[in-house]
# Entry
Amino acid sequence: MVQDILNSSAGNQNRSTAAKSCLDMVHYSDYRINLVGGALSRREMKDARAWMSGALVYQYDCWSGLKYVNDTSQVVKTMTFFNSSLIGGSSNALAMLVNYYLYGEKTGSWVPVRTERDGFWEPVSGSSNSGSGGGVPPGLKADVTVCKGGGGCDYDTVQKAVNAAPSGSGKRFVIRIRTGVYDETVLVPLEKMNVVFLGDGMGKTVITGSKNAGQPGMSTYRSATVGVIGDGFMASGVTFENTAGPETHQAVAFRSDSDRSIIENCEFLGNQDTLYAHSMRQYYKSCRIQGNVDFIFGNSAAVFQDCHILIAPRQQNPEKGEKNAVTAHGRIDPGQSTGFVFHNCVINGTEAYVALYRSNPKVHSNFLGRPWKAYSRTVFVSCNLEAIVTLDGWMPWDGEFALNTLYYGEYKNVGAGSPTSKRVRWSSQIPADHVATYSVRNFIQGDSWIHAI
# Structure
């Protein structure tokens, strides 16, 4: 069906772009569903749930992309098929995985999936500590090196080095990226697994671009300066940047669909939609993430540990004020094991933004998040919420949308923006007995794949 749309899209760039993106998403969905078929043990059930959650992300994104070009009967027919068959079937399969994990073969106990918002908490193990002692393994030896200009190195661009990585390999392929500004768009495709970017440090090794959703035929997904799909990706000591100004709206610096990915000591610079944590399980440690509108967004299961989250001024008349949301999580189904967890992070502004805020605090409002999709889930645990965070805490998306189904939780935060007495009624305080739900071990199964956890 999607191929038929693509074949009939001559002269219609928007429809052709949507169809190509949709074909990619179908391919990724098939890949994840095939992984689910091999997961049988109880421990692997968490993996199966993560992979099926990802498959549902891709199917929904395919449908969502087509809805903006639903100008032919073929598009309408394809959207109907996705909505009624693929998405509905995947949602049912995910619900069965959840129930099987909880109740085994006692099918009489199976019920529609419940969430924290319903007062339901899955049994977990371990302590309430959400953190991890692990990260990118130390002492990795470079397989290839990249230098600006190429002198004395194997490659002069990051993409050439990625292309040299073996396909489908279970062995790490380490790319050492020397100091320099690399103005290029980089894609780590599905078949390039276990690729590692080792830079010389934030602000030294910089991968930069300026693609944005305001350009003809460009989507938010494809605007990423660096996009990673292959599983097992790692990065350390790199700045990922998108220099498109806020007038261009969505402009992604880094996008990830890499399951079991680890990003440590990296920097993400942009404005709207800086970091697209699109799908699967991701771990960010000691990173610096900067932007303004929904600048950490997606439908992944991502943990942010010891990170600095910084709001930057909008370049268009910033002194007039604005409303910024740090996060926009996009969980579309209660069965998805996705959400954003922030542990021991600092939420503040850049030096320039803090100066603006102090000059007129009443016109500058900043929120921890807003619900991009119906089952949006975001929690802040033991974080320092500075004064720029409004005491409401959380921002609605559109009227009452998602306010009864989202889960926005907080636990033992500190700072001038942390008092909870004025929080919106639809946010929650995480019960002490259940904060372990959001540990690296329980939320993203990090004990099985993060080095020295």
Notes: Residues 73-103 form the longest helix (31 residues).
